[in-house]
């Protein structure tokens, strides 16, 4: 436990520098091994880790409410989809993972910043992977690094078409100052491109209250499945940003 805590402290220190640079990813052969091999070993989801995360979240919240008023997950939840969510906290992924299970829809892999897979912090990398995460090196992606772009494309194709699972993407690409205040920051079009390329629906899932987890008074967390777009009718970035912002507001009222 001490080692894990030490890794978390180091991660927070690095992230506080706001200095985006390429990451040496764990496992070290991430870019050379086949995607199939990675997902059958290092990136295999583990139910025991999910159960541990669920206990942590339940201890940290006063109330968590998950809602799907339009029945979107009843229709689309057990087929491959691209799910997008606002990103105001590092606690978003475990909250979303547990919400998906409460809704009874299929689990979703999620694109996680590569800093969570830094080879200096193997315990964090292992935990995030067991919860369904896989690394995305934002610095390399912004530099249009060919290897990073191809690996992201191949992984999303593998999840959606070979595993027949969903993938959750945070279009803001990180935790922005706007997100900390309850607003959607600037977003990229990666989620729409992924949905269009793989011909799958795009679902907006919004969260509220995650930043208050593990505070002295606990948190009231809301998770709302707010909208779905078919692959032939995807929004542009402005339209998606608007849909995400409306979702946050509605999630905060649950």
Task: Describe the secondary structure blueprint for this structure.
Layout: H1 2-15, H2 35-40, H3 47-60, E1 61-67, H4 72-76, E2 82-84, H5 92-103, E3 108-113, H6 122-130, E4 133-136, H7 138-142, H8 146-162, E5 166-169, H9 177-180, H10 190-198, E6 202-208, E7 219-229, H11 237-251
Parallel strand pairs: 1-7, 2-5, 2-6, 3-4, 3-5
Antiparallel strand pairs: 6-7
Helix pairs in contact: 3-5
Task: Describe this structure as you would to a colleague.
The protein is built from eleven helices and seven strands. It is an alpha/beta fold and 254 residues long. It has a single domain (22-251), classed as Glycerol-3-phosphate (1)-acyltransferase (3-Layer(aba) Sandwich). The chain has a seven-stranded mixed beta sheet with strand order 1-7-6-2-5-3-4, sandwiched between helices. The longest helix is centred in the middle third of the chain and has 17 residues, at 146-162. It is globular, with a radius of gyration of 17 Å. 42% of the residues are buried.
From the alpha carbons, calculate the radius of gyration and give it in angstroms: 17 Å
Which band does the percent of strand residues land in? 15-25%
CATH architecture grouping: 3-Layer(aba) Sandwich
Instruction: Compute the average pLDDT.
Output: 87
Number of domains: 1
- Strand tally: 7
The helix tally amounts to 11
The 3D shape can be described as globular
- Low-confidence segments, given as residue ranges, are none
Helix content: 40-55%
Entry keywords:
single chain; 254 residues; alpha/beta; Glycerol-3-phosphate (1)-acyltransferase; 7-stranded mixed beta sheet; 7 strands
